[in-house]
Amino acid sequence: MKKIVVAPIVLAGMVLGTGQAVFAEEQAPTGYETINNAEGDQYDPATGVEIPVKGTLGKLDNTDPEENIPEGDDRWLKVTIPTSVAFNTNPEKENKEIMAYNYTVKNLSGRPINVNLSKFSGSEEAAITKLSLTPKTGDAIDVVTNGVVKENVNQLLGKLEANVGAYEFTYKGTVDPEKLTGESTKVSYNMNLKFEVLDKNGESVTK
Question: b/e map of 167-185 (b: 16 or more CB within 10 Å)?
Answer without folding.
Answer: bebbbbbebeeeebeeeeb
